[in-house]
């Protein structure tokens, strides 16, 4: 099973009930946070997700029931062996994500850039990723910009515009921070809420794995 399908299953309705308030991309973001900072407490997770405390509790329960996390005493949550395997699958495809000051390259205050290995060919014009960010984050609340690495240049599809020409500082920051290789994509989620910026980045990233 792909990691995308695994996190989607976590967000399915249980026993014919209404779907949970969290989405699959929330589950992916939470799993990455726990994997990178474990043990991670519920309070810290609440502070770094845009969903409410009740939804975070439901998400943690789903992750526990699926065998991905376990409580580490009062310290918080830790990945199980099964969780470590899922974490490894995700970071193989999305090895890095960072908050970066990208100025005029993005619309809102905060920008979270995710490096996506080998998915440049899945990017047509960036509209699918932008629209997914808007759908999930809200109109006038979030968006996404998608860049791809081709022939050693970071370009914006569909015209393969070299963004270095108009955004030199921002482009160099992305190149030095994420170190993308030819064939990689960089998906930048943006919002005035930093948690939402990170979440819509993952939501947009997941559109690049729709056929897997």
Account of the protein in words:
This protein is an alpha+beta fold and 212 residues long. It has 2 domains: 90 residues, Winged helix-like DNA-binding domain superfamily/Winged helix DNA-binding domain (Arc Repressor Mutant, subunit A, Orthogonal Bundle), CATH 1.10.10.10; 116 residues, Gyrase A, domain 2, CATH 3.30.1360.30. Helix content is 42%, strand content 18%. The radius of gyration is 17 Å and the shape is globular.
In short:
With 212 residues, the chain is α+β, with helices and mostly antiparallel strands. 42% of the residues lie in helices and 18% in strands. The chain has eight helices and eight strands; from the N terminus they run H-H-H-H-E-E-H-E-E-H-E-E-E-H-E-H.
């Amino acid at each position: 099973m792909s990691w995308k399908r695994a996190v989607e299953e976590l967000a399915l309705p249980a026993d014919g009930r209404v779907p949970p308030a969290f989405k699959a991309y929330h589950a992916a973001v939470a799993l990455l946070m726990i994997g990178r900072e474990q043990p991670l407490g519920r309070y810290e997770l609440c502070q770094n997700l845009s969903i409410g405390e009740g939804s975070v509790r439901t998400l943690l329960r789903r992750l526990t029931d699926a065998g991905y996390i376990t409580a580490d005493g009062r310290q918080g949550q830790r990945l199980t062996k099964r969780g470590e395997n899922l974490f490894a699958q995700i970071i193989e495809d999305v090895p890095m994500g960072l908050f970066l000051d990208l100025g005029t390259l993005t619309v809102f205050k905060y920008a979270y850039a995710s490096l996506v290995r080998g998915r440049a060919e899945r990017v047509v014009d960036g509209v699918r990723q932008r629209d997914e960010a808007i759908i999930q984050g809200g109109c006038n609340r979030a968006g996404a910009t998608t860049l791809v690495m081709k022939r050693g240049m970071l370009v914006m599809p569909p015209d393969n515009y070299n963004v270095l020409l108009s955004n030199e500082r921002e482009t160099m920051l992305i190149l030095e921070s994420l170190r993308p290789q030819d064939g990689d994509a960089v998906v930048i989620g943006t919002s005035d809420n930093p948690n939402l910026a990170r979440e819509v980045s993952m939501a947009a990233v997941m559109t690049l794995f729709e056929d897997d």
